[in-house]
Amino acid sequence: MKNYRTCGFCWTNTRYSLMTGEEATINYDSFLKVGEKAGAKCKQFFTARVYAKLLNGDPYGRISIMQFFNYVMRKVWLHQTRIGLSLYDVAGQGYLRESDLENYILELIPTLPQLDGLEKSFYSFYVCTAVRKFFFFLDPLRTGKIKIQDILACSFLDDLLELRDEELSKESQESNWFSAPSALRVYGQYLNLDKDHNGMLSKEELSRYGTGTLTDVFLDRVYQECLTYDGEMDYKTYLDFVLALENRKEPAALQYIFKLLDMENKGYLNVFALNYFFRAIQEQMKLHGQEPVSFQDVKDEIFDMVKPKDPYKITLQDLVTSSQGDTVSSILIDLNGFWTYENREVLVANDNDSSTDLDDT
Hints:
Recoverin, domain 1; 3 domains; 3-stranded antiparallel sheet; 60% helix; Serine/threonine-protein phosphatase 2A regulatory subunit B'' subunit gamma; nucleus
């Protein structure tokens, strides 16, 4: 952190900065003069390239000193974190295996005040929960290792290290996968589903997940494709399942779901595949006393939404490109998801009415 302190001293002791409204700014000539004062160790930050990156439409071509300060802090943090992660790279190849990342996070726990309340007996489950997110999203080919460069480039480490903030809001904790409340929620759901308390989930137990409206056909595919032990799912496999269903807009989640929908492993979904899964939705509708919706109508809507390159086939790339993958998957695998889609206009109208009522009060 010595470099950062040196730069910080120069900012606070320079006469070159100017105030624009409430924000301190600096022009390029003054920027270079501060760089000279900062010395050789800070030279890498005082370049034309860095200055150009931080230009943000100032009429006089100045940059914000605070933005520059944050940029330097980020670069220093990345450098230190790269060194920290590299210590766990046993093979020295620029990758971390699952066990390497588990060791890194396990040793990180005591440094994160927001995790102070975790029982040590829960540490192994917490580490498993945290590591799974990295590997689910950053190791789509399931090679068992992740580039350190990819770990640094994604936002997951930011989320994890956000737990150093002792005053992190309840809302921020609830939306952060790595927080104690989030990890306890996911693990608590797993325990609640495990009715026979054998530490594993059968298909029948998993059928109660969420609103309990995932179709049997989809769950059959989960147990056919995912790693199970004597037909039951362990916690690690469950985490992949949860990450996929809670992040259906993300390409990695869509890849997980697409593999389940692509029964014949053709690399695309045709009308037969769509009909196969939607038939289970129609059956659930009958069980709930609802009039089943015509598959022909739904099929047309799906193809209209996705607009695939081939008018008769929908690929994973089509789903990702269309930004409708989450809607399509929900329609095909979850009665509640289909109901939400089918009644979207009514739900929007109700939301608008509620907003109007609040405004009136």
